Automatic annotation (TrEMBL), chain A:
It is found in: Cell membrane. GO terms for cellular component: plasma membrane. NCBIfam families: ntrCD. This is Nitrate/sulfonate/bicarbonate ABC transporter ATP-binding protein. Residues 6-240 form the ABC transporter domain.
UniProtKB/TrEMBL annotation, chain B:
PROSITE patterns: ABC_TM1. One of its GO terms (biological process) is monoatomic ion transport. It comes from the Bacteria. This is Nitrate ABC transporter, permease protein. Belongs to the binding-protein-dependent transport system permease family. One of its GO terms (cellular component) is plasma membrane. The chain crosses the membrane at residues 7-27, 98-122, 143-166, 218-241, 247-270. Probably part of an ABC transporter complex. Probably responsible for the translocation of the substrate across the membrane. It is found in: Cell inner membrane; Cell membrane. It holds the Pfam family BPD_transp_1.
Length: 303, 281
């Protein structure tokens, strides 16, 4: 196994509870992310998803543990990790190209005006906003704003893209087309992505690996689901694939029941938070055999 | 429909104005009655025609119109220290207001920025601001006269001190309440402190800062009249006081009208400026 691009190690977040003591939102979260991987984190509200993303972005500090990039613990935000925020968070007094240029000149302060403009234009074209360069965010629809946010993040050519429910504020139609575009862009550029969502179909379309988080407080990574759909899946056709329902049902079962009862589920069973079980739900076997670290088959229960 | 609304509103305005002028004309019509209905003390004070009741000392609209026309025909004459055109007096007042106001802006904007950026400074300075803010600017006048020993500069100081607070408080508030997500954008882009201040915080806070500036210019224009009544010499406030001593009510009304018009012009100008920095989210 190659060295991961970014590695989350023993991350924890605790808040002082009322009446003394501490509330643990999540703890002992370990997750390596390989270069070029698209990783989706799924869990219910309150499990600390956004906190994990903010720690990855360098905008928040964990109570314990660390995030390691290139063998070093991250200490703050970096241009290597671009964030696409849940609200588009464009600067409303700048035009579309102004917002992107603000990011580009932050990345390349030495670039001339024309070079910055050409670079911005390239990414405006990528997200299909050609013709809207000089509009203000208020003149754009929700989907177009989010496209600008995506273009801004891509334009700085980060090592890693962090997305916090980027499509949750959009209507279903816009969401579908934008998801498809993001999948295309990320596949073409082999972009490493960490995304938060609670939309199962979104995760199945976009992610190579889907990380399942149990409910907070005391949330942890329950298992890592590898996407068993083909790499060239499309939203229009992926539901016809043989593995679709096995994968979908597995994720749905987790969100509906297992995320609540995970503590009871692992009681008495070997569970190593550093190496959560990896599951590949497919059409044929009902219970999927996965290889544990020692190489022996281990059964990952599918309820 | 919109055109017809503004047309009707304009018509109503003209009607209200006509009714006001009519009432004024009616109230100041020369009475033929006896002098008995005039308060003797007042009669002693104003003397002359008014005391006899033949004609009120309060001018008719036509009188005031003639006075205004007289002033507007020749607003910039200077015939000695106590007889200068109303335009010259207004220019003196405007000069004082702008000078004190710009000085206040030069202090309040950077200081407000600092206060807004730092919760520590915000808390440390808050008690001083809360105590100093409600003080009538004219209360500073004796202190200013004593320390500065120059009435002209004292008037400017009073304008400075009254313009300071709205700008300071609004700048600090605007800077402190810049949306967290915009700051996060700047943080993830590793934007430097100066670039963040000028390209993110300043534009984000600009509408709030401009609101403070607009409040300040209004207050400054209110205060200059009173300040000039106190310090005397020149200015529209001094003009009003001087004409009161001359009992020239026509001139006073002219000055009042001009003060209102200039105040409105200042507010419109700042309103335009505010629109330049406004943004829609």
């Amino acid at each position: 196994m190659t060295k991961p691009l970014i590695s989350i190690e023993a991350l924890a977040r605790r808040y002082p509870a009322r009446g003394g003591g501490e509330t643990t939102i999540f703890e002992n979260v370990w997750l390596p992310i390989q270069k070029g991987e698209f990783v989706c984190l799924i869990g219910h509200s309150g499990c600390g998803k956004t906190t994990i993303l903010n720690v990855l972005a360098g905008l928040d500090q964990p109570s314990g543990g660390a995030v390691i990039v290139d063998g070093r613990e991250i200490s703050g935000p970096s241009l290597d990790r671009a964030v696409i925020f849940q609200g588009h968070s464009l600067l409303p007094w700048m035009t579309v190209i102004g917002n992107i240029a603000f990011a580009v000149t932050s990345r390349h302060p030495e670039w001339g005006r024309e070079k910055v403009r050409a670079h911005c234009q390239k990414y405006i074209d990528v997200v299909h906003l050609t013709g809207s360069e000089h509009k203000k965010p208020a003149e754009l629809s929700g989907g177009m704003k989010q496209r600008v946010g995506i273009a801004r993040a891509l334009a700085i050519e980060p090592k890693m893209l962090l997305m916090d429910e980027p499509f949750s504020a959009l209507d279903a139609l816009t969401r579908g087309s934008l998801q498809d575009e993001v999948r295309r862009i990320c596949t073409e550029t082999e972009q490493t992505v960490f995304m938060i969502t609670h939309d199962i179909d979104e995760a199945m379309l976009l992610a190579d690996k889907i990380v399942l988080m149990t409910n907070g407080p005391g949330a942890k990574i329950a298992e890592i689901v590898e996407n068993t759909l083909p790499k060239d899946r499309r939203p229009a056709t992926m539901h016809k694939h043989a593995n679709y329902y096995a994968l979908r049902n597995h994720l749905l079962d987790f969100l509906v029941t297992r995320s609540k009862n995970f503590a009871a589920e692992i009681e008495g069973k070997p569970y190593d938070p550093r190496k959560p079980p990896v599951v590949r739900p497919g059409a044929k076997p009902v219970g999927v055999e996965t290889l544990a670290d020692d190489g022996s088959p281990r059964s990952a229960a599918i309820a | 429909m919109r055109g017809s609304l503004s047309l009707r509103a304009g018509l109503l305005s003209v009607l209200i104005f006509a009714a006001f002028i009519g009432a004024w004309q009616f109230a100041t019509m020369p009475t033929t009655g006896a002098a008995g209905d005039v308060d003797p003390e007042y009669a002693a004070l104003v003397s002359g025609a008014a005391a006899q009741g033949a004609k009120s000392a309060f001018p008719t609209p036509a009188d005031v119109g003639a006075t205004i026309w007289g002033h507007l025909k020749d607003p910039f004459y200077v015939r000695g220290a106590n007889d200068q055109g109303v335009g010259v007096q207004l220019a003196y007042s405007l000069g004082r207001v702008l000078l004190g106001y710009l000085l206040a802006a030069a202090v309040a904007t950077p200081l407000g920025f600092l206060i807004g950026m730092s919760p520590l400074v915000y808390r440390a300075l808050d008690p001083f601001i809360q105590v100093l803010k409600p003080i009538s600017p004219l209360a500073w006048m004796p202190l200013a006269l004593y320390t500065i020993k120059d009435s002209g500069i004292s008037a400017i100081f009073v304008i400075f001190i009254c313009s300071l607070w709205p700008m300071l408080i609004n700048t600090a508030f605007g800077v402190a309440s810049v949306r967290k997500e915009w700051l996060n954008v700047a943080a993830t882009l590793e934007v430097g402190a100066l670039r963040k201040a000028f390209l993110v915080i300043l534009p984000a806070a600009a509408p709030t800062i401009m609101t403070g500036m607009r409040i300040s210019i209004g207050i400054a224009w209110l205060v200059i009249v009173a300040a000039e009544m106190l310090v005397g010499g020149t200015g529209i406030g001094y003009f009003v006081w001087n004409e009161w001593n001359n009992l020239s009510i026509g001139n006073i009304i002219t000055a009042i009208l001009l003060i209102g018009l200039v105040g409105m012009a200042l507010d419109v100008a700042l309103g335009r400026a505010a629109r330049l920095v406004a943004y829609r989210e």
